[in-house]
Structures are given as C-alpha cells and as structure tokens.
Backbone:
C-alpha cells in the first residue's frame, strides 16, 4: 500500500510538471507568434519628404499589409526647399526602409540624409516625369524686365537646379507620372507586394484624371490665351496647363523683400502686355496681388500649393478641384 501511495504521488507530480511545461511552451509559442505577426505588420517603413508625395504614397500603399507610411515634419514658414531637418525627422529616417522624395532639387537637405544614412534607399519621384512635361528655365518669365530678371536671379531658389521648376505635383500629368514611378520602384524593392503597388497606382491615377479632367477643361476654356503674372513658382504649372502666358514672376515667401521699384517695374510689365490675371498663393501673395490688381485691374486667382497642412488620401483631388474651380478674389 505504501509503495502504491508513493507511486501515485510521483505520477501526480510528473503530471503537474508536464502540465506546467505544456502551458509554458504554449505561452511562449503564442508570444513569439504574436510578436512575429506585429513585426510582419510593420516590416516595411516608407518615409516621404512632403505632403504631395505622402498623399500619392498613401494611395499606392492602400491596404498593403506590413507597410507603414510616415511623412517628415513640414515647414511652418518658408518654402520646402529651405526646410531644415529636425531631430524628430532624423529619428524617423533612422527607422526607414525607403525615403520617397519629390526630387528636382526640391529637398535641399538630401545630401545630409545621404551622409547620415548612406544605405537608405531613396526614390526620386521626379525621375518618372518626361523632359517635355517639365517647365524649364528657357520657358520661364520671357517677358520680365531686366531689373526683375536681375533681382529674381539673386532670389532664385536652389531647387531650380538645371533650370527646372520642381513644383511638379501642381501639374496633374506630372503628378500621375510621379505616382506611377513611385509604384514601379516600390514594386522592385518590395516585390512581394508588386501587384498591390502597381494596381493601386493605376486606380489612383485613373481617379485623378476622371475627377479633374472636366475641371481643367472648363478652366482652360475660360483663361486660355490670356496673360498672367505669378507670385509663386508653383502656380506656373497651373498656368501652363491652362494655356495661360506668363508675363512675369515675383516668387514670394516670408523672407522675400520687395522694393517699390520692383513693384513699379512689374506693374509697367503687366500694362505693356495687357496682363489680365494674377496667380498667387494666399499665404504670401494676398497683399501684393491686391496691390497689383488695384493698379492694373487684373483678376486675382489664389492657388493652394499643398506644402503645409495635414492631408488624407483624397486631399490632392479635393484641393486641385478647388484650384481649377477657380478661386477668385478681387
């Protein structure tokens, strides 16, 4: 009887140890599986340089498992090409698998990024735009006076390397070309999701064209053949798509100091060419556009450039609808 009792106790202890082992193994298995799942869910981190590229990438990566998209901090003042990376930006970049930029020289900090993260893959979306779609220096501001040309040359942005206006997203055709290029490059880097990227890009561009083509055609019917001055270089892609001739440019931001002589020269230029339109960004161009309108009677059209602000997947289409609406204010 005593031996049987001892055997039962030993059997019971062994059974308990087996149970504990099974529970421990099961818990470990679940923990590992859960953490591996989370790693898969956030295994491919894409960082974008600016809002227009961010919006395109959100649509391209829509419903793609394991992919996260983060946009770098945006400037509260000034133009994007003068933006300086913050400590927060560098921290975000340290976790990135790929950085997608607008390109064309827009990101003045790119050399710093490449120096700090030499192994970071970079997609320059402007590489998808054909040369004939770009607005180049030899097409710009042909009717500016010598005084204006000299002052504009001194203020000329660094992002106009090679004489290219890098605000390419302001042209629907350029923007779609950029989206297609982003998708094709992501498909090469992350081939597992190739079909998702390419299919999403095609659907997004089709949506852009279907929702904006009529708006652009209507605006073109209204303004084609007219003459305009632009108070922000981003507006030039809009005027180009509308068939509007650019008679002069005064690229404004919060640091731009405009002399009375320069204003007088621009007014004379507008009168000489019969300029009827002023395209401006509301943040920086309101006072100047109202002054020019008062002196010449030209109509003011405000354009949103999408550099600042928080945007969602449909924001590009919504804002471009407003731009081609057209937003007037005299």
Residues:
């Amino acid at each position: 009887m005593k031996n049987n009792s001892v055997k039962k106790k030993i059997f019971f202890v062994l059974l308990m140890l087996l149970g504990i082992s099974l529970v421990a193994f099961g818990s470990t298995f679940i923990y590992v599986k859960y953490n591996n799942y989370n790693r898969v869910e956030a295994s491919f981190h894409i960082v974008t340089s600016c809002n227009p590229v961010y919006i395109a990438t959100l649509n391209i990566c829509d419903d793609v498992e394991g992919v996260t998209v983060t946009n770098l901090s945006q400037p509260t003042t000034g133009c994007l090409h003068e933006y300086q990376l913050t400590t927060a930006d560098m921290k975000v970049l340290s976790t990135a698998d790929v950085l997608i930029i607008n390109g064309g020289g827009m990101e003045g900090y790119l050399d710093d990024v490449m120096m700090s993260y030499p192994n970071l893959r970079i997609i320059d979306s402007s590489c998808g735009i054909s040369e004939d779609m770009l607005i180049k220096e030899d097409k710009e501001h042909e009717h500016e006076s010598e005084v204006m040309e000299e002052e504009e040359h001194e203020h000329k942005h660094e992002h106009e390397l090679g004489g290219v206006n890098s605000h390419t997203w302001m042209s629907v055709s350029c923007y779609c070309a950029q989206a297609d290029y982003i998708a094709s490059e992501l498909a090469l880097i992350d081939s597992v999701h190739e079909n998702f990227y390419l299919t999403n890009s095609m659907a997004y561009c089709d949506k852009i064209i279907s929702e904006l083509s009529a708006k652009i055609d209507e605006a073109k019917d209204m303004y084609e053949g007219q003459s305009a001055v632009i108070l922000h270089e981003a507006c030039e892609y809009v005027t180009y798509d509308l068939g509007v001739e650019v008679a002069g440019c005064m690229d404004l931001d919060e640091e731009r100091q405009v002399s009375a002589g320069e204003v007088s020269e621009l007014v004379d230029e507008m009168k000489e060419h019969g300029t009827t339109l002023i395209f401006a960004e509301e943040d920086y161009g309101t006072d100047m556009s109202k002054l020019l309108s008062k002196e010449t009677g030209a109509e003011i059209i405000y354009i949103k450039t999408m550099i600042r602000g928080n945007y969602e997947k449909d924001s590009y289409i919504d804002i471009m609808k407003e731009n081609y609406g057209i937003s007037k204010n005299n």
Q: What stands out?
A: Confidence is low (pLDDT under 50) at residues 27-41, 139-161.
